[in-house]
Amino acid sequence: MNDLANFLKFSPFKIEKKRKKVLYQDFQKKLTNYHFDKCKSYFKILNLLKYDKNKKYKIWDLPFLPVRIFKKYNLITSKKKNIFKTMTSSGTSNREHSKIFLDKENSNIQIKVLSKIVSNYIGNKRLPLLIIDSKSSLRDKKISSARNVAIQGFSIFGYDVTYALNEDLSLNLDQINNFYNKYKDKDCLIFGFTFLVWKNFYKNLLKSKKKYCFKRGIILHGGGWKKLSELKVSNEFFKKSMKKELGVKKVINYYGMVEQTGSIFVECEFGFLHCSIFSDILIRDKNFINLGFNREGLIQLLSLLPTSYPGHNILSEDIGKIIGEDTCKCGRLGKYFIVKGRVENAEIRGCSDV
Q1: How confident is the model over 320-342, as pLDDT tens digits?
Q2: Domain ranges in the chain?
Q3: b/e map of 31-67 (b: 16 or more CB within 10 Å)?
Q4: What is this structure's pTM?
Q5: pLDDT digits (tens, 9 = 90+) for 105-117
Q6: What's the CA angle centered on 129, arms 125 and 130, to 5 degrees?
Q7: Do residues 151 and 163 lie in contact, with contact meaning Cβ atoms separated by under 8 Å?
Q8: What per-residue string of b and e applies to 166-175 under the rule 16 or more CB within 10 Å gives b?
Q9: Helix H or strand E segment including 247
């Protein structure tokens, strides 16, 4: 899949919809055929779905996999001897975890694309980085590796990396104070999983009555919204609370999943998540009909990145709505959308039955 290197030459939000549609339709079909030819399990699934590799498909007619299938089966396209990293999704102890298999080439592409996307929002310079987690989370096998992957991935944007939490996830005030004293008047980055930022950092800071003002700081966070929604904490309330307590200039939310690591969707200043040239989105109803724009349904995520496993076309269990394309006031081209929540206790039927 050498064609992927050509996309790295483009700015992540500069291809208008007509050109992107042509590029995507061609590349998604190539990816589907590539995995069809090289992944035995994927071949069996698509055969049962009567996929014809020689047929011309509209992009919304190409076969997708429900995200749950990665919890049930090991789907590998690369040769097993070339797999050097296995990522697992987050989840509670009574739930299965997705397993995603990466070779070095796929992993390197993910890192390059992540860098291009996030740099568009925070700039190209590396910044002092405060991670809202414990350093032990990188070595503790009991901790969800989704957190490990996120910490390692986003660490490329920082230097003087400092961990704000102790092993028991309580505040490490000495570390926080040292970081604050050095960078309170400088550009800096604060990164963490949304729920940890809220519960273990923000809430404990309120209890401690410590006051900080990172007036040139940026908080970048993602994941954990299900738990926060149970606490009735909205995205808007989260932002207001962080700005009030920490004095930061920006709070940026991102959306993504371990099944498509690298091609994340970052929120712009107008509150919308954006597709880059490396990703796209469709919305489907419960019968899998493509709904188009401004209608709520299941989020289907398409990515150009997965080559070592067939994760390029996935139906998630999240509910969302596409707002527009190429018309956001922030100036970024591509579809922009919102996520409304997750399907509760629902198994996505269709391919998973196969």
Answers
A1: 999 999 999 999 999 999 999 88
A2: 1-354
A3: bbebbbebbeebbebbeeeebeeeeeeebeebbbbbb
A4: 0.91
A5: 999 999 999 999 9
A6: 160
A7: no
A8: beebebbeeb
A9: none
Rounded to whole angstroms, what are the CA distances from 93 to 89, 90, 148, 231, 318? 12, 10, 17, 21, 21
Question: Cα(168)–Cα(163) distance, rounded to whole angstroms?
Answer: 13
Q: Residue 353: pLDDT band by 50, 70, 90 thresholds?
A: very low
For residues 305 and 110, is the Cβ–Cβ distance under 8 A?
A: yes
Q: Which long-range contacts (CB under 8 A, 24 or more apart) does 204-212 make?
A: 204/170, 204/171, 205/171, 205/245, 205/246, 206/245, 208/171, 208/173, 210/173, 210/176, 212/176, 212/180, 212/184, 212/245, 212/246, 212/247
Which of helix, strand or coil describes residue 192?
Answer: strand
CA gap 161, 151 in Å, rounded:
10
Q: Which two tokens stand for residue 336?
A: 């922009």
Q: What is the CATH number of domain 1-354?
A: 3.40.50.12780
Going by C-alpha positions, the residue among 211, 218, 212, 213 that lies closest to residue 249 is 218
pLDDT, one tens digit per residue, over 291-321 is 999 999 999 999 999 999 999 999 999 999 9
Cα distance between residue 110 and residue 341, in whole Å: 26
With b for 16 or more beta-carbon neighbours within 10 A and e for fewer, the 290-316 pattern comes to eeeeeeebbbbbbbbbbbbbbbbbbbb
Q: Are 213 and 247 in contact (CB under 8 A)?
A: yes
| Per-residue pLDDT band at 39 (split at 50, 70, 90) | very high
- Tell me if residue 301 falls in helix, strand or coil: strand
The owner of tokens 């900080």 is: 212
The predicted-structure confidence for 137-181, as pLDDT tens digits, reads as follows 776 554 446 778 888 889 999 999 999 999 999 999 999 999 999
